[in-house]
Design brief:
About 2% of the residues have low confidence. This protein has 2 domains: 103 residues, DNA polymerase, domain 1 (Orthogonal Bundle), CATH 1.10.150; 145 residues, Intergrase catalytic core (hpI Integrase, Chain A). The protein is mainly alpha-helical and 328 residues long. The protein is 53% helix and 4% strand.
Length: 328
């Protein structure tokens, strides 16, 4: 079967032209797999027959509507899928001039405005409660304690955590972990003494200090393979559910792996750590991204209000209250 122009350009685009991380390539690939499903089921065009000529602005908007209505995707997911299609057609417009107007029509499809939900994070008390849930008398309980503790202590994204190997950890005077984040950017963050103790016990038990295991994943499943993102999320939700039963007010209804990263940032902010250091700790490109924590912190807002001149609103009754003739 002769390949179509769509398959030819897509094959060129994903691994070569993107120049992005493997995770981003996987995310882009997922978008196109879903798009091919839509074109097959809703537009009756099978993947092997799909050409660039078949992809129009109307079909792209139809795909986006289908995502929301049929697959019940949120606005952020819808926008992420559109961003991938935009990226592909920006690539196409310099290679197929005959369809330039059509590609630009697709590029004119706008992103939807999305509502930013309230940031979910754990208080110090909530975090302590959650970390008490793993059964440390069981092997996987000890693994889960080390995993959850490192997820919080390092402020790592879930993929960064999954990728950690023994070679990424240094137990010098100041213990650190090396994290590779978005855009293959590397940062080194310090670890607390308590987390270091948990990690050392866990790594000793699993032979992770042995030289042949330097590149082995720190956290593995029963088959000794690297944990998936879903597996880590299931671990988080499992212990959040048990913790919520004992103290519902301390554990948010919606909790994810990223909740630990948010919690670390909020705790650092409320400890008066400079925003620039928090930015570097989290691996943000700009403090603009990090400032979201300052806007979300009720403690910081309360502290700021306390610094206002107290004489603006007097605490004691004014003198006319003391004059019985003035008070009816």
């Amino acid at each position: 079967m002769k390949p179509t122009d769509f398959s030819k350009y897509l094959t060129q685009y994903l691994p070569v032209e993107c120049g992005v991380s493997q995770n981003t390539v996987q995310a882009y690939s997922q978008t196109f797999m879903i798009f091919l499903k839509y074109m097959s089921e809703e537009e009756c065009i099978k993947a092997e027959n799909l050409t660039l000529q078949d992809i129009t602005k109307q079909r792209v908007t139809g795909f986006l509507d289908w995502l929301e209505k049929e697959r019940r995707c949120g606005v952020s997911t819808r926008n992420a899928r559109l961003a991938t299609l935009h990226s592909f057609f920006r690539f196409i417009q310099y290679r197929d001039l005959n369809g330039l107007i059509r590609w630009q029509e697709i590029l004119s499809v706008r992103f939807k405005k999305s509502y930013s939900p309230e940031m979910a994070y754990l208080t110090v008390e909530g975090l302590k409660l959650l970390l008490k849930q793993p059964d440390i008398t069981a092997r996987y309980g000890r693994r889960d304690l080390a995993l959850l503790g490192l997820l919080y202590d390092s402020g790592a994204r879930v993929q960064e955590l999954i990728n950690i190997t023994p070679a990424d950890l240094r137990f010098d005077e100041i213990a650190t972990v090396r994290l590779q984040g978005k855009g293959r950017k590397v940062r080194i963050v310090p670890l607390s003494s308590t987390q270091v103790q948990n990690l050392k016990r866990y790594m000793t038990e699993n032979g992770l200090f042995e030289s042949q295991n330097a590149a082995h994943p720190i956290f593995t499943n029963p088959q000794n393979n690297r944990l998936s993102r879903v597996a880590v999320l299931n671990i988080v939700k499992k212990y959040a559910e048990t913790a919520r039963k004992s103290s519902p007010d301390l554990i948010p209804d919606k909790i994810s792996c990223h909740t630990f990263r948010h919690s670390k940032a909020m705790h650092m902010l409320e400890a008066d750590i400079n925003l620039i250091y928090i930015r570097d700790f989290l691996g943000h490109v700009s403090t603009t991204t990090t400032e979201v924590y300052a806007r979300a912190s009720s403690k910081k807002k309360a502290d700021a209000l306390q610094k206002l001149n107290p004489s603006i609103v007097p605490n004691e009754k004014t003198s006319w209250h003391k004059d019985g003739q003035l008070v009816p």
